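Minutes, project check-in
Item: structure for the 675-residue chain
Input as provided by the requester:
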Amino acid sequence: MTALAMLLAVSCSKTKKYPIPLFDGSGGEVTSDGSSTSVASQGLLSISVEPANRSIPVGIPQDYTAMGIYSDGYTRDITKDVTWSSGDTAVATIVANTGEVTGVSTGSIQITATLSDISGTGNLTVTTATLVSIEVVRPNPSASVASGTAIPVQFTAIGTMSDGTTVDLTKVADWSSSDTGQATVDNSTSKGSVTGVAAGVPTITASYSSISGTRDITVTAATLTSISIDSDTTITINGNKTYRAIATFSDGSTQDITDSVTWSTGDTNIATIETGSSTNNTGLATGKSAGSTSITATYNGISASSTLTVVDSSTVSSLSISPSGTTTIGKNTKQNYTATVTYSDGTTKNVTSSAAWTSSAISIAGMSNLSGSEGEASGVSVGSTTITASFGGKTATATLAVAERTLTSIAVSNVTVSAGSGKQLTATATYSDGSTQDVTSAVTWNQVVDTSIAEVSGGSSDYGTVYGKSAGDSTVTATLSGVTSNAATVSVKSLTSIAVSSTSVAKGSTAQLTATGTYSDGSTEDITNQVTWTPNTGSGDTTYFVVGNVDGEKGLVTGKSAGSAVATATLYGAGNAGANVSGSGTITVTDSSSTTGGTETKSVSVSSTVSLDVGSTTTTETKPTGDFDGALLIIGDENTKAFVANITGGTLHACADVTCLMDKILQAVSEDDFD
């Protein structure tokens, strides 16, 4: 029994019923005697079948998802808890315990998911469309795969049909790698899962019905350096939050490792989180009682944490959604809604990903509760529907109208992106009634013409993001309902050099470094927070200083001992054709102690004056007298201007700021006039 299922029983003879679902990790309800039943319906209000409306070809199986919407306003994936059924098995069959549907003959039917006496339906159309092409996709298509870890990278095979629709072929395609010594790809239980073995550029192929799609993937010797997870967030008691874990490797590449990490909470009395392969909801945290606790993801000894605050739903004052009122979209287009909660103390928070979303008429527009697309409405047919968001016992509604309007054109904006980076493309539709709508997530993004310059992602987490590869210009288009956009220009600039500021810092003190990148188009940019700095706490010689390499501390150098060394800033994959670009600067650490290294502080008397030029101002300062051979003396006037006296050499240097002062000190030291 998992910690999630451990509750104090108040009766030994009856099953205690709860207003929300309590699971033991296998989908069962927890009873007072510690056993579990196959009931996951306590507090279940409705079931959302997703996608609510879909079209599939005959013979290619596709998966449905069932999202349970509960009395507390939260959602949970209950795909394997419901019983699936087809409205007409002569049109399509569906596996009762998994939701895998296969078209048998043309027609339109309903697919039903049932749990106890509650059901949800989705509309399915089966067509005779044939497979035209296959595209192998992954988030950030230009990113590499690290061989220094056993973490797999999930590839997806997307098939384009003769009617313009797309289907997921990942589970039915045959997967292969051109060189298993460099990368392997699973072709059985976790199809499309690629694991790096050794450095190289193998080709991953997905084939189905004599049609194939390929993608080259760069495998590096990079190792895992850090993990990041969702930032601090708030949920209500019995509420949910799905966390993601992102790995960063030594070459600067990143990868979603949500399913690979071990999830834990600091206090299971405040919140629990699901982890491991036995659950459909890896990373799903559930609030148990009011308070704050840590959420931690761990892999191979590397961890990341953030704070989860659980509040009583009674502290939720109101909920609002945007856009409010009535919004009109066209058929086959989408509208994104956001949900914002206001708490009793007046603070607000975006809870779009935590709220439960429903449409009163899915035949007009469906709503998504799937991770990554929460709050997304999809227009299906002409009419009006009520969109509802629920959170913490509160609800908010808006009206969505779907109009019969003709798409006349699509405008895609030109974009400039740096090599090794990504930028979201945007598509705006214009209709016959003169109205416009953002259709970025509804269009089919056609691949960049020259993929050696850039590639556009078809992955679910970064759909429509274009990634720069090499300096140059190419074009990209988008298609929706048979209409293709203008050919938008994708300009890629590659990083040619990095300039790192040199500085001096006293031992035990800090100073901020800056990294300025120069690009192939001649432009410059402050990239201090983008580069990897060394030496840092995990890499390089930190004898003299260490440079911060985490968010909020990037480029912050801390002096450790007197001496000089080089600080390096590297931006991985930002050069032409994915080359790494580095720049460095000299860091000098001075000894701030009054006794270390022969430096000594003494009292002095003065008897004469000397005139000094400070900028455009001439000032008169006292000149010290006495036996101070081998000493370094710093004097200040009434205006806080600083002066450095090299006693042995008899030279008095004037400075109007601290930077000049440090330079003069270093100059005096370099002249070997001091011990």
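Outcome recorded: Confidence is low (pLDDT under 50) at residues 1-39, 593-633, 637-642, 646-651.
No further action items on this chain.
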